[in-house]
């Protein structure tokens, strides 16, 4: 009988996270204070983050210990299985070997608890009572709501309004775990009220929701802020995915030629690829592909500039590929990929040519998702379906060229709470949207001069 799953025991769970900043040829430029444009220091961040996370944010130490309390909760779903996609390979008639890490086995159904659990742990240890955050499609909000319930923290989530309406079951999941969820923009914060005043019908964006959550945290002494992607410490926590995968590939005597992940802020791409990029930086042949939507083409059409992480300009300025912080993308179903910028670490690696990027429209993405679900049985989240689209295209290229390559992608979440999106696809209601270049230029013209 052929082997489909490569499974590690709980004893083989990584005990440390991998910090790629120890090995990068060039580190990202430092974050700048939004008012002074001077380099941000720990004191600037201590109002909304616990010191342990601030230390991880700036650390260049290669390995950082995972606390025992975090490891204990990780065992609810980790190590996650590595699958060989035999049936998809057969359906495509490709000589390529296709593998995927399945993060949908977590209680929240995605990779996001890999960082929500440690973030909640460090906040609880620092004596914080409440955490405010944002969420796009709801996967991050669900993960932090779960973490809050496990550590006894109150969680407030600002959910992008278009996703709040599209994905009611994500909201219900958050509320089941005890979180309070507001559609963003809301009337609760000054940031939200200003957006509503300017555009009463605003669909919202991750940038707007971040503004609301940061404002909430900054104006309440008992409240901190947590982010589900973009920041260095978030990407650090996700490396548990790739570290497990390296062990799993070693068991079967294989190694990826191509690693693929969808990219909105960058956390799941980082998690699956950073431990392997350590090898590439040291001379190993390897391609890493970031996949984004054509409606939010940050890496493929954005500019490498200092920009705010949020719409209102409350966050530090980060050196990123950006479409402009007031960019409001169309309401595609992959809500987790609707962010105007990407993680500074991802952006620096892309700028240095260590990773590639490509973009797809949502109809071709859902076509790939349906092909995958018919072959492998799992219905993927719309975000991770972008990685599947690129995987299928690379596998078909192998067929055309008669080459056997090992392709590895991160199936970062299931789509069982996204079936309304599949209903739209199956009924022919989905539309593709390519964000126009002139709109991007318009938005970039408003960036602060640094």
Walkthrough of the structure:
The model has no long low-confidence stretch (mean pLDDT 93). This protein has 450 residues and is an alpha/beta fold. 42% of the residues lie in helices and 16% in strands. It is built from 19 helices and 15 strands. It has a domain at 68-109 and 233-437: Rossmann fold, CATH 3.40.50. Helix 5 runs parallel beside helix 6 (139-151) and helix 16 crosses helix 17. The N and C termini lie far apart (60 Å). The strands form four sheets. It has a seven-stranded mixed sheet, with helices on both faces. Strands 8-7-6-9 form a four-stranded parallel sheet, sandwiched between helices. A two-stranded antiparallel ribbon has the order 2-3.
State the name of the first-level CATH class of the domain at 68-109 and 233-437: Alpha Beta
**Beta-strand share of residues:** 15-25%
Radius of gyration from the CA trace? 20 Å
Query: Can you tell me the CATH architecture of the domain at 68-109 and 233-437?
Result: 3-Layer(aba) Sandwich
Looking at the structure, what is the overall shape?
globular
CA(first)-CA(last) distance:
60 Å
Can you count the helices? 19
Biggest beta-sheet profile? 7 strands, mixed
On the 0 to 100 scale, the average pLDDT is 93
- pLDDT < 50 runs, ≥5 residues: none
**Class based on secondary structure composition and strand pairing:** alpha/beta
